[in-house]
């Protein structure tokens, strides 16, 4: 099965058995492909004496630590095929991951993301407010995860504005004009969790005291990038939602989990508050002691698998995040596949995520 | 201005290139037509012809020629 076939299947329609069949086929194929085309990857597999022909399930595939992409430039296509290099977000002084994309992988990332997000927003594009500053997408040679996130979601916007200026100040007049112009229409708001809290929510609270209030009850907000800083400020996801709702009437708010090493395969939070794996990807939680698979409701280290990466060997990765798989195929929202929550980062893990690395500046 | 002239203008103005570069031009073929340039180009075309493209068409819009084909779906004859 190639990726084109997978794209034709609705993203949350397969039950456990059918999804496993699909993943076994595609992920084992990708492992063979990368072994043949990425010398470093091939040596890694050899060093652990891994024989791809001997495995039956994608669950037995080796997983690379996400950090490896900081240390090695891993690609499975010729340098001339690379059209875009993406970098992870890191705090100042941290090494960043480099992810090399060719045309196919880059386009498949976008296609998968459209399928996933449309399941939540509907397929029509909407006026969009980007809660960030325009300079983030300016440096085009090296694409930061933050810029890539914004650009990826921009596809769902028809008319767009950046709500913040380059000093990260809310442009109140521009917001007011925009909302007036598109009054009565569904509006998409996108941003990173901490930026929304610090530069949008807090500003709306301040404005409210001055008698300025925005009505975003028609809005749908998608945000991601990490909760670390807000956890320190004792803001839970529920409270984040509740407080935004109080100040501007927003009710449809979706967090997402994703990383630059597997762009495209994002895990969106459903109406019931659960993050969901689509058919394009899967998540496995593992016990730190021996990397065996956790049971549902048992906390473990998160492994992510994606059917997309062809230009770099990033289809099976072990993250430094911890989470709990809550169930499979039976979320009350009706979407099939595993659903889970993130509980935090492993101790001594580096700070990552567009929201968390930015927040590190706010001591 | 004919529709073709308008279409060409969105490319030359958004990407900062000349008309003789348009034939055979592909997405990611020049540095200006990267993913950022792409979204700019899409907005310019949408404004010029007063249309809204589907997300699938934004992704499929992979070359100068392909864009012409896509525009037909929105009743824009070039």
Give structural notes.
The complex is a heterodimer of chains A (363) and B (78). Chain A has 11 helices and 15 strands. With 363 residues, chain A is α/β, with parallel strands linked by helices. Chain A has a single domain (3-349), classed as ANL, N-terminal domain (Rossmann fold, 3-Layer(aba) Sandwich). In chain A, the strands form 2 sheets. In chain A, strands 1, 4, 6, 7, 8, 9, 10, 11, 12, 13, 14 and 15 form a 12-stranded mixed sheet that branches. In chain A, strand 7 (187-192), helix 8 and strand 8 form a beta-alpha-beta unit. The termini of chain A are far apart. The relative contact order of chain A is 0.16. The mean pLDDT of chain A is 92. Chain B is an all-alpha fold and 78 residues long. Chain B has one domain (3-17, 24-73): Non-ribosomal Peptide Synthetase Peptidyl Carrier Protein, Chain A (Orthogonal Bundle), CATH 1.10.1200.10. Chain B is 56% helix and 0% strand. Chain B has 4 helices and no strands. In chain B, helix 1 runs antiparallel to helix 2. The mean pLDDT of chain B is 94. Classes of the chains: A alpha/beta (363), B mainly alpha (78). The A-B interface holds A 83-84, 103, 106-107, 110-111, 114, 118, 123, 125, 137, 140, 143, 151, 154-156, 158, 160 and B 28, 31, 34-37, 39, 43, 46, 52, 54-56, 58-59, 62.
CATH class of chain B: Mainly Alpha
Structural class of chain A: alpha/beta
Q: How many H/I helices of chain B?
A: 4
Average pLDDT of chain B: 94
In whole angstroms, the N-to-C terminal distance of chain B is 11 Å
Instruction: Please give the count of helices of chain A.
Output: 11
Task: State the helical fraction of chain B.
Answer: 55-70%
Which homologous superfamily in CATH is the superfamily of chain A? ANL, N-terminal domain
Low-confidence stretches of chain A: none
Strand content of chain A: 15-25%
- The CATH architecture of chain B is Orthogonal Bundle
The total strand number of chain A stands at 15
Query: Span between N and C termini of chain A?
Result: 49 Å
Query: CATH homologous superfamily of chain B, by name?
Result: ACP-like
């Amino acid at each position: 099965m190639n990726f084109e076939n997978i794209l034709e299947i609705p993203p949350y329609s397969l039950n456990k058995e059918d999804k496993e069949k699909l993943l076994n086929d595609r992920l084992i194929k990708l492992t063979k492909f990368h072994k043949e085309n990425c010398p470093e990857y091939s040596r890694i597999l050899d060093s652990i004496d891994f024989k791809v022909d001997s495995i039956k399930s994608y669950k037995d595939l080796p997983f690379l630590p996400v950090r490896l992409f900081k240390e090695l430039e891993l690609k499975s296509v010729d340098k001339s095929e690379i059209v875009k290099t993406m970098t992870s977000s890191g705090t100042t002084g941290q090494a960043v991951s480099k992810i090399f994309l060719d045309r196919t992988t880059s386009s498949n990332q976008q296609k998968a993301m459209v399928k996933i997000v449309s399941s939540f927003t509907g397929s029509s594009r909407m006026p969009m407010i980007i809660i960030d500053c325009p300079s983030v997408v300016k440096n085009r040679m090296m694409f930061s995860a933050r810029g890539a996130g914004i650009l990826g979601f921009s596809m769902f916007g028809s008319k767009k504005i950046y709500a913040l200026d380059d000093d990260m100040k809310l442009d109140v007049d521009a917001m007011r004009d925009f909302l007036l112009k598109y009054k009565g229409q569904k509006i998409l708001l996108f941003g990173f969790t901490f930026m929304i809290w610090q530069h949008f929510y807090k500003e709306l609270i301040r404005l409210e005291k001055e008698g300025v209030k925005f009505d975003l009850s028609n809005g749908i907000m998608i945000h991601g990038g990490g909760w670390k800083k807000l956890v320190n400020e004792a803001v839970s996801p529920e409270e984040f939602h509740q407080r935004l709702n109080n100040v501007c009437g927003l009710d449809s708010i979706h967090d997402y989990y994703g990383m630059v090493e597997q762009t495209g395969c994002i895990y969106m939070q459903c109406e019931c508050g659960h993050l969901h794996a689509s058919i394009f990807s899967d998540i496995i939680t593992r016990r730190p002691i021996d990397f065996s698979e956790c049971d549902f409701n048992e906390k473990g280290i998160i492994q992510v698998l994606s059917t997309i990466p062809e230009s770099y060997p990033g289809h099976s990765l072990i993250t430094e995040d911890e989470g709990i798989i809550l169930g499979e195929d039976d979320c009350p929202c009706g979407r099939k596949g595993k659903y889970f929550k993130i509980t935090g980062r492993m101790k001594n893990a580096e700070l990552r995520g567009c929201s968390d690395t930015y927040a590190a500046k706010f001591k | 201005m004919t529709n073709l002239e308008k279409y060409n203008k969105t490319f030359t103005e958004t990407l900062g290139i000349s008309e003789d570069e348009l034939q055979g031009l592909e997405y990611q073929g020049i540095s200006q037509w990267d993913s950022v340039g792409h979204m700019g180009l899409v907005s310019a075309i949408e404004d010029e012809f007063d249309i809204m493209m589907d997300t699938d068409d934004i992704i499929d819009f992979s070359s100068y020629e392909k864009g012409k084909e896509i525009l037909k779906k929105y009743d824009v004859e070039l």
